[in-house]
Amino acid sequence: MSGSIEASAFITCIILALGLVKPLIQALQYTDNLAMAGSTVKEISGLLEEEELDRPHKPVKLDNSQVSFENVGFGYGDAEVLHGVSFKAVPKGMTAIVGPSGSGKSTVARLIASFWEAKSGAVRIGGVDVRELPLSQVMETISYVSQDTFLFHLSVHENIRIGRPGATDAEVISAAKQASCHDFISALFQGYDTILGDGGGSLSGGERQRIAIAGAILKNGPIIILDEAA
Length: 230
Hints:
The chain is an alpha+beta fold.
């Protein structure tokens, strides 16, 4: 304002200006993370606001573990994706549902696992409508491996043992061998004690699915659902 500035004040201004550059650059680098966090919070809030499925609490005796669809219809909002679907899965066998992308294969898998309920018709396990089964019983009966597998920031042992927390190390290794993932696990830096990154990011998609399949095998549920698993 007076047309001049003292040397001490001038040097202070330069130091402060240079000191602000790095924090500003770092703050700009976090803008994408903040946007992602906002999107994630929105998705989680939407899930928490969903109405909880109304299911009984008392377990029901099942004669078998056969899965069947009876004229099932389901849609997302006003867009119906399943129209009168009926089939019976092969008891103690393998049933494959094949179709183009967007045809409703994952929707069928998730209806069996009670992620949602059919808008019409009935989904049955052991001849019983799943709406008459407690969710805990459905979870005990079904081992589900999703298309997008998520692994926790835990060791390989612990990620597989999620299928059955009380399993021994020998049982974990046996399940891994059956899922054809023992060899690549053994090749990791610390083998089964290797800590996987968040979401299992240190592994390929196929390797993550193999570990998830090992967990499903270890759980030993009578029904295993593989949603486009490798």
